Amino acid sequence: MSSTLTPAAMNHRRLPNTWDLAAFVAVLGVLAAVAAAARGTVMPIAALGAGTIHLDPRYLPGYALRTTMRMFAALVASLLFTFTYATWAAKSRRAARVLIPILDILQSVPILGFLSFTVAFFLRLFPGNVLGLELAAIFAIFTSQAWNMAFSFYQALTTLPADLEEVSRGFRLTGWQRFWRLEVPFAMPGLVWNTMLSMSGGWFFVVASEAITLGNKTWQLPGVGAYVAKALEQRNIGAVFWAIGAMLLVILAYDQLLFRPLVAWSAKFRVETTAGATAEDPWMLAILRRTALLRRGGEEFGHLVGFVTGLPLRLPSLRRTSERSPTSTMAGDIVFSTIVAAIVAFAGWHTVSFISQTLHWSDLGQAVMLGGITLMRVVVLIALASLVWVPVGIWLGLRPAWARRVQPIAQFLAAFPANLLFPPFVVVIVTFHLNPDIFLTPLMILGTQWYILFNVIAGAAAYPGDLQEVARNFRVGGFLWWRRVIFPGIFPYFVTGALTASGGSWNAAIVSEVASWGHTRLVAHGLGAYIAQATDAGDFHKIVLGVVVMSAFVVTFNRLLWRPLYHYASRRSVLG
Amino acid sequence: MDATTGDTLIEVRGCRQSYHKDTNADLLVLDDVELSLREGEIVGLLGRSGSGKSTLLRIIAGLLRPTAGEVNWRGQPLTGPVPGIAMVFQSFALFPWLTVAENVELGLEAQGVARAEREKRAEEAIDLIGLGGYESAYPKELSGGMRQRVGLARALVVHPDLLLMDEPFSALDVLTAETLRTDLIDLWSERRLPLKSILMVTHNIEEAVLLCDRILVFSSNPGRVAHELRVPFSHPRNRLDPAFRQMVDDIYAVMTRRAPSLASPGTIAAPPPEVTTTTKLHAVSTNVLAGLMETVAAPPYDGRADLPALAAALQLEADELLPFGETLQLLHFAEFEEGDLRLTEEGRVFVQADTDDRKQHFATALRQYVPLAAAIRRTLDERWNHRASSVRFLDELEDHMSPEYAEETLHAVISWGRYAELYAYDEEAAQFFLEADAVDASG
């Protein structure tokens, strides 16, 4: 079972172009607009009745359940988004030129910084109603899940095997049949894998989104995240550990009951010519497949699904551009580009004017400087984590027995919401009066370092046996072995892991550069703290500025470092 | 089988297929193709890769629309896939997530046939094609031959009038392919196939002679019907029959005589064709060229080999052997003559030489007969840093051929130049350059 796939966005080789810039401006414009709309609505909302959180561990199962429900609600929303947005982008050349760069930018925007706006926005839609708060939390999780799922689906749709596509056309499958018989199955392995990664990222957001502070208001939704927030407020470390325990169980259950079986099942959709070595079914899937009653039920369900997906429904077909005359296509392109340009110009103007209402160039300078500090943190942490986990990962990966046992643990740790683990660290820092600028830093990578580990393990496990034998045969050892033999072999995997880790760290900065324990507040210098403090102060202009600067940092960092590195790695490490 | 009395199924007239290039004139894939197909016959489209025969098949399937010309299906203009035409693919094109039965039922499902009926007809088709018992297997559990049987059953189950086959046996090993061919022709002769006619694309000359009633030989660049032959033998046919062998020989002669991009249709023999810097080259390994020359020079051929015999001995198909021969002809190491491959004096000298001398001879041939290689070397000599980007050469090639061909040509010229040590190539920078010793030698 392959344990890693490349991040969806990376396989898609595109050079940065004006469409990216346009998408960047447009996305920020929308965020600024939401911020502006939300600003007026924050104050009038009264405290919600749902706000009482009990620290008694007996309440935890209920809270955990509600947290999980939110996760799955967001997952359904993400799937709907994936099926529509990605399909639209894949079927329309023009739409793709706008939709794909937007997706790319959205992936890089630290959406956590905007949590407060989305909360305010949804509260306004459902005034005084807890539903608004629920939807806000679900939306926050959605924004952490949807993009890479949509990307992987889009990528599958644009790389459908030509012969299967011809068979579908030859037999005149309708759009609906084609979608369920060809497109969705073909996308399935990548989609399941990305959904799993998304869910892992989602736990972090669900915890963060259950207790929102904006200005002098605090909202809490019953759930594990709110439970931890309350525990922090009351300096109850015991309750924190209870919450960590509950979360461990929840994630273990989700991993074992849902995603292991799903990933194993999705292997049947892999397009491969040979019957590869098939891993053993996870126990849950084995139960489902071998229990007669469940099997019967599954078959009936399968027939029903087969019937519905086989209905000869015609979908509104987006005509292929090749069938149109070149002149009309060109005219259409010009009109289209003009409209896009107008929207982008408006969005840009809107963002700038919103920020410049109260802020100066000096604020921008400050934000950029703080961004530099956070960047430094990210770079140092990735380097340190690599120094530790690359050798460990290689050691483990080259020993299959170990790799098999450790790999699920690493993936599990990556899924665990690291923000739940912050409090014990904070307690230590407070107790020993450590410097927050240095000692808050490791929190950023607490949850994301595991991506480096499990990708390196996967890379080392996939390292060709004959090359290892060559190295042993010629007695290549020591530094030479690292430099010439093993490191180039796992490099693409390492880049994938480090890239994911660095992206996650930027987001984590917003919650990790500021920490509190009761009434003690620890603040590190950095852009994350800047955004967090602006949020506490309810200063929307500063939040927008902070998020804009951080997005710019992330996008630039990705484009200038990770992407070229990734392409270099994938070009070099394949033969032929 | 009386082929002349049946109704006309497909009629292709003045068909031309080009694809549009942004900067330059359109590139022609098919030009002025005429074809008509009647009930009761098996017709083969025989040609080299790149002769557009697969493109023509897709046009007839309604999967592609021709740039110009008419395609009529039973007298009506064809505008897209129709229920009466089904296709079998070279790659089998089975859905890996569907079982054998589900794959076979796909076409019926698209027609909205009810489940019970679907299962019954799928069962029949699966049994007919000899796959009974495999209904619930997934394609990856099957061997190549079994997979192609599924592909065949999937096409037959919709009871098409016309079956299109795109090199159906070329992805299979020799034995499996032969079994499948025999089974197919037996079913056809016994009239057990729910079909009126078969149109198949192949590059295997023997296969075409073995199965078809009529063979259309395609020339390349652009694809045209260069020859039409009627196969007079009745089924089952014997490969060892002298008349059969003679026909195979004749087709080889036809195909080498009309070597694509070397001569225009109609000219006989091969006067040294005009080769320019934008002639398409085959990416043939120099090892293969040397090996082929050694084989032809050695007994039993002693410098002159009969192509079908050579192909059989080397276990190559015509489609694979001809590019090798053409490349040797381009380099003046060998020549085609009446379906034979004959080594030239230069070829003999090459075979005799040791490794370093061979490189010398190859370099000389490249400079003399491959203008593109000569031009690259000249450019490098003129540059102060002796480096030149390959992109400009590729761009120029793309003005005259498809991107895939341009890529292949560039690949060929890189590999040959490296072997001859005429120039070196830096893949990272996509640049040709001269090694220090080559610079001194030329300076």
Secondary structure layout:
The complex is a heterodimer of chains A (576) and B (443).
Chain A: H1 8-11, H2 18-39, H3 60-91, H4 93-108, H5 115-125, H6 130-158, H7 162-170, H8 175-209, E1 211-214, E2 217-220, H9 224-233, H10 237-266, H11 283-290, H12 292-310, H13 326-356, H14 361-397, H15 400-415, H16 422-432, H17 436-439, H18 443-446, H19 449-461, H20 465-473, H21 478-512, E3 514-517, E4 520-523, H22 527-537, H23 540-572
Antiparallel strand pairs in A: 1-2, 3-4
Helix pairs in contact in A: 2-4, 2-5, 2-13, 2-23, 3-4, 3-6, 3-8, 3-10, 4-6, 5-6, 6-8, 8-9, 8-10, 9-10, 10-11, 11-12, 13-23, 14-19, 14-21, 14-23, 15-19, 19-21, 21-22, 21-23, 22-23
Chain B: E1 8-19, E2 27-38, E3 42-46, H1 53-60, E4 68-73, E5 76-77, E6 85-88, H2 100-110, H3 115-128, H4 144-156, E7 162-166, H5 174-189, E8 197-202, H6 205-211, E9 214-219, E10 224-230, H7 242-257, H8 286-297, E11 304-306, H9 307-314, H10 318-330, E12 334-337, E13 340-343, H11 345-352, H12 355-369, H13 371-382, E14 387-389, H14 390-398, H15 403-419, E15 424-426, E16 431-433, H16 436-442
Parallel strand pairs in B: 3-8, 3-9, 6-7, 7-8
Antiparallel strand pairs in B: 1-2, 1-4, 4-5, 9-10, 11-13, 12-13, 14-16, 15-16
Helix pairs in contact in B: 2-3, 2-4, 3-4, 6-7, 8-10, 8-11, 11-12, 12-13, 14-15
Description of the structure:
The complex is a heterodimer of chains A (576) and B (443). Chain A has 576 residues and is mainly α. Chain A has two domains: 19-338, Orthogonal Bundle (MetI-like fold), CATH 1.10.3720; 358-576, MetI-like fold. Chain A is built from 23 helices and four strands. In chain A, the strands form two sheets. A two-stranded antiparallel ribbon of chain A has the order 1-2. Chain A has a two-stranded antiparallel ribbon with strand order 3-4. Chain A starts with 7 loop residues before the first helix and ends with a helix. With 443 residues, chain B is an alpha/beta fold. Chain B folds into three domains: 8-257, Rossmann fold, CATH 3.40.50.300; 286-350, Arc Repressor Mutant, subunit A; 356-442. Chain B has helices spanning 53-60, 100-110, 115-128, 144-156, 174-189, 205-211, 242-257, 286-297, 307-314, 318-330, 345-352, 355-369, 371-382, 390-398, 403-419, 436-442, and strands at 8-19, 27-38, 42-46, 68-73, 76-77, 85-88, 162-166, 197-202, 214-219, 224-230, 304-306, 334-337, 340-343, 387-389, 424-426, 431-433. The radius of gyration of chain B is 24 Å and the shape is globular. The model of chain B is unreliable at 258-272 (pLDDT under 50). Classes of the chains: A mainly alpha (576), B alpha/beta (443). The interface between A and B is medium-sized, with 29 and 33 residues.
